[in-house]
Specification:
heterodimer, A: about 300 residues, mainly alpha, ABC transporter involved in vitamin B12 uptake, BtuC, two-stranded antiparallel ribbon, 12 helices, about 5% strand, globular, disordered N terminus, B: about 270 residues, alpha/beta, Rossmann fold, six-stranded mixed sheet, 10 helices, about 35% helix, ATP hydrolysis activity (chain B)
Chain lengths: ~300, ~270
């Protein structure tokens, strides 16, 4: 049986945990939009994100430490992420390396690159200017301000992505993932579309990384581990909760999935099961199991239906 | 461009395609084949399995690159052009009704992509109001009621409907060459007949140049002004005009038995009469 201990003392803690989960759900929502672009739109399984998230954090963090503008640093993070994605896509399209392997290669290379960028495995941004200082017009407390800014950024990115996917290029991108033979016979270079899509995806992921670094006050080379699995879990969770009938609905779904995923994690961390208390380091295991369950539910459902028939 | 009457739309010379070169599975699919297609020709291509019909179409479309020889299309040497570049001149319908459309996208989105074949894509809006009117007008010709279902996903449609859509899409912008690769083979006989009729109408009304591969000798005889028979990667029969009109299924069967020995015909279940 589930036992909830120290229920009363956790009352105030869980409010912060709740707000914190929203904050994380929103900022990692940008990363989830990127994962949606590769896994769902392009049908290109891309693990580069485990490297491009810390890449964004490293670029943004290193630039701030060197006294540059925090907004400019986010722009640079976006460009760096796009470059990382483009490398993966070039390996996959021009050199014909299997997409999964190509992304693992880039991810591995990024580990070294991220340390080079920061000059060491991690950076602290304490007492350095961030975008949150610049945007705090009303003197709001951090725990209110940060989620609000993330919400605005995420909504803007979602709307821009929705609009983009309804342009001619966007349609070609969707078609490249759906039926490459078809869109090639309509005169579109599918290699170009894959490069564009994977670059865009990793640009979003790196933006998430930069924002995380600025809000947490540090960048760490290991902060990307498990990003892709969390991203996939969010995508699948959102799809099953909200649906995916249209592009607008689908992007909303993956964002909702991101928030629900972080809330679920926060709840899981606040409970104690018998003598076992979950710690943040258990998250990757839990997420991995969650993804397996989500991915196999359709199969199991099919089997049950088959047996009944 | 200044295309004149009688100009060769397609010029194939000494084309050779070898699959799995250098391995024990080496197959010569096309053997130094030469042929040209005049503007306004509607060529039907028949031949048994492995004759190289589909390979030939795929070489023309750029899906495969040849080992030897050259391909000229509308005056350009396109031998080494990638598939997407040749698409500016070529409309295609595939054997698999699912190949020509995107299932997860709407009818209007599929049409929008086809309406820009070879023109390139930009950040302009994908489907405009004017597009929609044009698509509706085109879809009305099918008589399937699809003009009222512009926003429905193509995946909801039947194979026959999707093949009709693909055909419309391939000719939405006038192609210099229409390639039909056994496009009715996967459909039930009644639907196949409808799609074939639509094919004939479109080609006649738009005065298109077309190459249609088929397994069905009757279709090959009924349609088009020219018939090509292929065997082992070569053209073994090429008749046009009045001579083609006089041709019968018996004549074709005779050609086959003459070239291959009578016993092989019985084996070839793919020859439909």
């Amino acid at each position: 049986m589930t036992v909830r201990e120290k229920g009363s003392t956790e009352g105030t803690m869980s409010f912060y945990a709740f707000i914190g989960a929203w904050e994380q759900g929103l900022v990692y929502g940008l990363m989830v939009l990127g994962v949606y672009l590769t896994f769902r739109v392009l049908d290109f399984p891309d693990l580069t994100v485990d490297g491009s998230l810390p890449l964004g954090a490293a670029v943004s963090g290193a630039m701030i430490v060197h006294g540059m503008d925090p907004f400019v640093s986010l722009g640079a993070a976006v460009l760096a992420g796009a470059a990382a994605g483009a490398v993966t896509a070039l390996l996959a399209t021009k050199l014909r390396i299997m997409s999964l392997l190509a992304s693992i290669i880039t991810m591995t290379a990024l580990y070294s690159i991220n340390i080079r960028i920061m000059g060491r495995p991690n950076l602290t941004l304490l007492n350095k200017p961030t975008i949150f200082d610049a945007l705090n017009f009303f003197g709001l407390p951090q725990y209110v301000l940060v989620p609000c800014i993330f919400l605005v950024i995420v909504v803007v990115c979602k709307v821009l992505l929705d609009l983009f996917l309804h342009t001619q290029v966007g349609l070609a991108l969707l078609a490249t993932g759906d039926n490459p033979q078809m869109i090639r016979s309509q005169g579109v270079n599918t290699d170009t579309m894959i490069i564009l899509g994977v670059a865009l995806s990793n640009a979003l992921v790196a933006l998430a990384g930069g924002l995380v670094a600025q809000s947490q006050g540090f960048a760490d080379v290991g902060m990307g581990i498990g990003t892709i699995v969390a991203g996939l879990a969010s995508v699948i969770l959102g799809e099953s909760l909200v649906g995916k009938h249209s592009v607008v609905r689908h992007t909303l779904a993956v964002l909702a999935g991101s928030v629900v995923y972080r809330l679920a994690i926060a709840v899981a961390l606040s409970y104690q099961v018998g003598f076992l208390r979950l710690t943040p380091s258990d998250l990757n295991l839990i997420t991995a199991v969650l993804v397996v369950i989500c991915l196999t539910v359709p199969l199991v459902r099919e089997k049950i239906r088959f047996k009944r028939a | 461009m200044n295309e004149q009457k009688g100009w060769n739309v397609l010029e194939i010379s000494n084309l050779t395609k070898i699959f799995n070169r250098g391995s024990i599975n080496e197959v010569t699919a096309i053997r130094s084949l030469s042929c040209f297609v005049n503007k306004g020709d509607f060529v039907t291509v028949i031949g048994s399995n492995g004759a190289g019909k589909s390979t030939l179409l795929n070489l023309v479309a750029g899906t495969y690159l040849p080992d030897e020889g050259s391909i000229r299309l509308g005056g350009h040497d396109v031998t080494f052009w990638p598939e997407h570049k040749r698409a500016a001149y070529i409309g295609r319908v595939f054997q698999n009704p699912l190949s020509g459309t995107c299932a997860s996208m709407s009818i209007e989105e599929n049409f929008a992509m086809a309406s820009r074949r070879g023109l390139g894509v930009s950040l302009k809006w994908g489907v405009t109001r004017r597009d929609r009117e044009f698509f509706k007008e085109k879809l009305r010709l099918l008589g399937l009621g699809l003009e009222h279902r512009l926003r429905d996903k193509v995946g909801l449609l039947s194979g026959g409907q999707r093949q009709s859509l693909t055909l419309l899409m391939a000719t939405l912008r006038r192609p210099r060459l229409l390639l039909l690769d056994e496009h009715t083979a996967a459909l039930d006989p009644r639907t196949a007949q409808q799609v074939l009729q639509l094919t004939e109408e479109i080609i006649r009304e738009m005065e298109l140049t077309a190459v249609m591969v088929t397994h069905n000798m009757r279709h090959a005889l009924e349609l088009g002004n020219r018939l090509i028979m292929m065997h082992h990667g070569r053209i073994i029969l090429d008749v046009a005009g009045e001579k083609k009109k006089a041709l019968s299924v018996q004549d074709l069967l005779h050609e086959f038995s003459k070239l291959r020995g009578g016993d092989e015909i019985a084996d070839d279940k793919m020859l439909l009469i």
